[in-house]
Amino acid sequence: MSLSGIFKSGRLTAAALLFLIPLFCNANESYIFNDDNIIGDRAVIKINEIGAELYEKSNISVYAFVSSSIDENVNESQYWIDFTKELKQPYALLVMLTNDKVVDILYSPELEGKFDKAKILSPYPTTGSILPLLVLKKDYDNFTAAILNGFADLVEQIAKSYGIELKNAIGSSNRSTLNWVRFVVYGMFALAFLFFIYKKVKYRYAKKEK
Q1: Over the stretch 115-129, which tens digit does the pLDDT of each residue have?
Q2: 14-209 — its CATH code?
């Protein structure tokens, strides 16, 4: 998904965030920019574990950037150019802007073909590892689940492409959540379809009765 035209009003200015980047990057265990603490602490710990292990074994950096939105006064193209320059190279950056409903993956040329971006960002429950989890509402921390699942998928795909085995990988253990989401989503479609058929049959029966 393109980031073009998505930046609306936000609470965090580019200057302040860019100032903080080196602080994050200097801490080996920090692989997530978690504006407003949108992502839960346990997921942050897991993301840092997975990111640190991949970097240790491959010198490849994968980060997650989660924010409500970005300052609308910032030139978006230049913003991401400046932002990614400060990351440890080569890098992949999973971006989520919650207010703007944007999810994207930025990455350096060295990682071209090392993961399936379209599959990770797919909206379909059978393939996507992020967007299907965002359908969950209120009583479920969908942003945390989505970013953790997407980050893990991204890291594990890159690791697999280089023949690296990750001890901290989530792997199939988190797929049960997605399977549950698939069940809910497909169940909703099935119920909607059955309700449509019921209304149609009921309408025809009522016409015959007249």
Answers
A1: 999 999 999 877 888
A2: 3.10.310.50
